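Tip: read the tokens left to right.
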């Protein structure tokens, strides 16, 4: 309906009466203008410069030196802190920057049993619903294949100065704007030795009672040249864990990122991978999944494994390894655009609804949904898809489904002709500015699906121990 109305608005503009057009044309949803303003601030050249500077510290291994202004992890995090602090002035006092220091247990061979980590955290306080939090992080630490002494060169351009640059650039793009929810931008330490920095952060947020409604880990988001010689720069891979079924919070967040990209980032796709991570590898989103928070990982479409975690060498007379000259900053900027669009959409929108229950009417093929809406929802809509479809295929605004209050002030809506047994249904909120929340779904009916006799219940996916040289 709104699409038709805006088409009429264009006709009036073409007729040549700007005043009439101004009065008659409905305003574009405010969220579209807000996201466009943020996207316009993303600068590929600055992303390239951030990656080059981070590589210039030689190594950012968690055990590398901290007594220098130009080399090692200590210099890297002081530089990152200064970059985030330079953004504070644009935020009307809502952005604060801190270092989170912790001592984390470590089980990795060749490492001490306790490792000190320092995360760099920038927090853009929300206005109206500051207790709801969205996090984007990249890990600024790096490693090579020699060992864990923190001494050899480990530029870590793609893994993961690229993801760190995305978190920093997203902070720059979003800090001047106001959001209902709080946004947190993080450069994580100690990822390569067992997700140490993100564990410290996720646990602290959980202990503080933060309502983390989404975490995006950007890790390995800078290489577009596949090992097959083909250039891959039209999509990112979005990994999400699910302990059971296909509708975990993380999968819901992954679909929300896909929605935001389709709406705001033309010509670039979020490719949903319905798997927690790549084979044999892990990342910082795992720490948030473990605390029960929706979390996803963004990675480039085709990795060049021959460069990750390598000691610097020469091939064909040229330097070889995870170096900044092999990072495609224009691509990394596209990943930053998806991050910015996703965070802006979700942090502007109300929180997701709470779906209490769903049932199939026994006398006809209609689905009834019972749910609660949060304060501040200007509207809501229903979505559904076949159980085998990766993403939502049907959307209906609530007006058409005529929700009505139940005795307990919950809402009851009937989706006519939707056979619940065959599809997944969900509800999402619409903000006054046209933004959309994550989709909330009712519980799946088959949580205790049959297993072969004598076989133990499957454990939720667990990340394997990191292996030297094979990457994480
Ligand atoms: Zn990494």
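Filled-in amino acids:
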């Amino acid at each position: 309906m709104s699409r038709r109305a805006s088409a009429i608005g264009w006709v009036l503009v073409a007729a040549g009466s700007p005043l009439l057009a101004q009065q008659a044309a409905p305003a574009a949803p405010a969220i579209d203008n807000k996201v466009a303003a943020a996207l316009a601030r993303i600068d590929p050249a600055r992303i390239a410069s951030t990656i080059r500077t981070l590589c210039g510290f030689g190594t950012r291994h968690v055990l590398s030196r901290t007594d220098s202004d130009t080399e090692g992890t200590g210099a890297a995090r002081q530089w990152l802190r200064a970059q985030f602090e330079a953004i504070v002035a644009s935020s009307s006092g809502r952005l604060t920057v801190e270092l989170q220091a912790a001592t984390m247990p470590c089980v990795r061979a060749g490492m001490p049993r306790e490792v000190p980590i320092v995360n760099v955290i920038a927090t853009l306080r929300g206005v109206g619903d500051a207790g709801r939090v969205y996090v984007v992080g990249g890990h600024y630490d790096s490693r090579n294949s020699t060992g864990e002494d923190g001494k050899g060169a480990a530029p870590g351009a793609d893994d993961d100065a690229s993801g760190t640059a995305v978190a920093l650039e997203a902070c720059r793009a979003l800090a001047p704007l106001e959001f209902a929810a709080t946004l947190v931008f993080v450069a994580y330490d100690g990822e390569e030795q067992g997700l140490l920095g993100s564990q410290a952060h996720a646990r602290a947020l959980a202990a503080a009672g933060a309502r983390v409604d989404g975490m995006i880990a950007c890790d390995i988001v800078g290489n577009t040249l596949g090992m097959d010689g083909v250039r891959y720069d039209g999509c990112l891979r979005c990994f999400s864990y699910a302990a059971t079924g296909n509708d975990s919070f993380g999968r819901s967040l992954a679909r929300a990122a896909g929605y935001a990209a389709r709406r705001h980032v033309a010509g670039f796709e979020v490719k949903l991978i319905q798997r927690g991570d790549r084979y044999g590898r892990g990342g910082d989103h795992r720490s948030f999944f473990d605390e029960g928070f929706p979390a996803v990982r963004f990675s480039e479409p085709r990795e060049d494994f021959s460069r990750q975690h390598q000691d610097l060498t020469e091939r064909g007379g040229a330097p070889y390894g995870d170096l900044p000259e092999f990072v495609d900053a224009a691509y990394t900027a596209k990943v930053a655009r998806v991050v910015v669009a996703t965070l802006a959409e979700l942090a502007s929108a109300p929180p997701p609804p709470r779906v209490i229950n769903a049932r199939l009417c026994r006398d006809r093929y209609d689905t009834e949904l019972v749910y609660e809406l949060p304060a501040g929802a200007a509207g809501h809509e229903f979505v559904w898809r076949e159980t085998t479809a990766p993403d939502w295929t049907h959307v209906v605004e609530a007006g058409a489904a005529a929700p009505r209050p139940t005795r307990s002030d919950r809402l009851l809506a009937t989706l006519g002709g939707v056979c619940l047994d065959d599809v997944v249904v969900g509800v999402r909120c619409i903000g006054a500015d046209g933004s959309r929340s994550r989709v909330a779904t009712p519980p799946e009916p088959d949580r205790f699906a049959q297993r072969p006799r004598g076989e133990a219940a499957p454990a939720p996916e667990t990340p394997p121990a990191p292996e030297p040289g094979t990457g994480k």
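The domain at 354-430 is CATH 2.60.40 (Immunoglobulin-like). Confidence is low (pLDDT under 50) at residues 1-24, 461-472.
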